[in-house]
Amino acid sequence: MKLTNNTIMITGGTSGIGLAFALRLLDMGNRVIVVGRNQAKIDNVLSLHPGLEAIRADISQTADVTALTNQLERDYPDLNLIINSAGIMRQYDLFDPEIALTDLTSEVTTNLNGIIYVTKSLLPLLSRQPEAMLVNISSLLSLVSAADSPIYSATKAGIHMYTDALREQVKANHVNIHIVELLPPLVTGTNLTQQYDKTFLDKFASSTTTQLVNAGIKGMQKNKPQIDAGFTKFMRVSMHLVPRQVTHIWGQQTMTAFLKKHKLLHA
After folding, report:
1. What is the pTM of this model?
2. Do 192 and 89 meet the contact criterion of CB atoms below 8 Å apart?
3. N or C: which end of the chain has fewer CB within 10 A?
């Protein structure tokens, strides 16, 4: 797909990976709308990058998604590219007695439900375009779970399966929407991966946002259904060859980072 002269919406577009894609795509000559739930962050991003446009919405809330859809239908009827980037990542010790059951669901609500809500609501708008694209950002952790972030890992595996099913439904309905799954490795400089700073994982399994965006743009231009960025390529092969060994080693590394962060293990 040609990545110029499009109208693009990016959820989670006020920081991290979402903002990095927003700025690159803006520079490439597109109209870019970022979506976030924090108005203060939106105002700051717009002041720093006046070429961007923005809509405030919490994609974990169906009422907000309905309002977002109505505004896009009205103000951006030529919307033809969506990047679902919104996500939160939390670390849990599932043996911690202080963690309530209700504490465990926020990642599901935002990471997985949010993508489902946004996609279902905007498929009719995308279907009306001559050509459209929807990019769901999952993760390396859809291939192998991070032991310190079990719920986040589960949501990314869910995104992978949902995206596969969505792609087949798009084909069955004969609409010209390219369905893309982007699988980042650990990405340095984002809030989600700070717990891995200066660890084995940071040294060997990470990419910068620039590297990720480069890989993503290249894959999107080629309409690749699945973009394995950086270390994800290596991990996919490894999980085919020695899945249990990789899962164990990866789990040890992520839990070690967790314990060090919480000063339960001496560095």
Report:
1. 0.87
2. yes
3. C
Q: Are 145 and 153 in contact (CB under 8 A)?
A: yes
Residue with tokens 């375009």: 129
Q: Which are the contacts of 176, defined by CB distance < 8 A and separation ≥ 6?
A: 129, 130, 131, 132
**Of 50, 60, 73, 67, which is closest to residue 11 (Cα–Cα)?**
60
- Taking residues 89-104, report their average pLDDT: 88
d(CA 235, CA 246): 8
Inter-axis angle of helices 62-75 and 114-127, nearest 10: 20
Q: What are the tens digits of pLDDT across the range 157-196? A: 999 999 999 999 999 999 999 999 999 887 775 555 555 5
Token pair, residue 251, equals 């789990």
Structure tokens at 57: 């919405």
* Higher-confidence position of 21 and 253: 21
Q: Homologous superfamily of 7-261 in CATH?
A: NAD(P)-binding Rossmann-like Domain (3.40.50.720)
3-state secondary structure of 7: strand
For 37, 143, 175, 200, 209, the CA distances from 195, given in Å and listed in that order, are: 24, 20, 42, 12, 17
**Contact by Cβ (8 Å): 206, 194:** no
Helix (H, G, I), strand (E, B) or coil at 78: coil
User: Distance (Å, rounded) from C-alpha 34 to C-alpha 52?
Assistant: 7
Strand partners, 181: 136, 226
**pLDDT tens readout for residues 190-248:** 555 555 545 545 455 567 889 999 999 999 999 999 999 877 777 777 767 766 776 66
Give buried/exposed letters for 105-140 (b at 16+ CB in 10 A, else e): eebbbbbbbbbbbbbebbbebbeebeebbbbbbbbb
Domain boundaries, the chain: 7-261
